Every structure is written in C-alpha cells, then in structure tokens.
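User: Here's a protein and a ligand (zinc ion). What would the complex look like?
Assistant: Let me lay out the input and then the predicted complex.
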Amino acid sequence: MRILKGDMVVVCTGDDSGKVARKVLRLEEGGVKIVVENVNRVYRHVKKGHPKSPQGGRLSIEMPIDASNVQVYCPKCDRGVRVGNRLDADGKKYRGCRKCGTALKAAGK
Ligand SMILES: [Zn+2]
C-alpha cells in the first residue's frame, strides 16, 4: 500500500499537477482511488434541506482521484518520492522515503 490516509502528497497530473496537498482525507475502492484535501474540487448544486447545506446552493466537495497520480511528499527532499519499508538502527521496519530514508508517517487514522 503506497498511499495512506493522512499522508501529505504531491499531485502529478491534471489541473492540480505539482500541488502539495496537506492531507489525504480518505481512501476509496481499497486504496485505488483517494480523496485529497483541496484537490479535484467540484461544486455540487444542492436543494434546500440538504444536511450539509440547509439553505441550498453550492456545496464544494473533493472528488476521488487515482492513487497512482500522487506521490507521498518528503519534506527533506522537498518533492514527491517513492516510499518503501526501511529498517531502523534496531532492525525495525518503518515506512520511509526511498531516497533519503526519512520516516514518513501518515498523520492521522
Ligand atoms: Zn526524502
């Protein structure tokens, strides 16, 4: 599994290409698609009485994008990188940047 909920990611394609997103909000279809904060936003027009918008009008939501279109952001490399299992000094596995070895933990569960 490459992308986790709470990851900071860089978008590689589309209108939001090059954008660093603070957070992956959720995974869909078992991680094939992901919903990323402020990426691929669309406006839905909703009628009055909608639970999120009692007045009706426009509602801004994020649509899922393909997980293969983003890379995990590494603050040390300052770019999107590949992540993999690395071993720390005690021989414990952790998820880290393949380039510099910085541990990249997903921020939230
Ligand atoms: Zn790195």
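Summary: The two ends are 15 Å apart (CA to CA).
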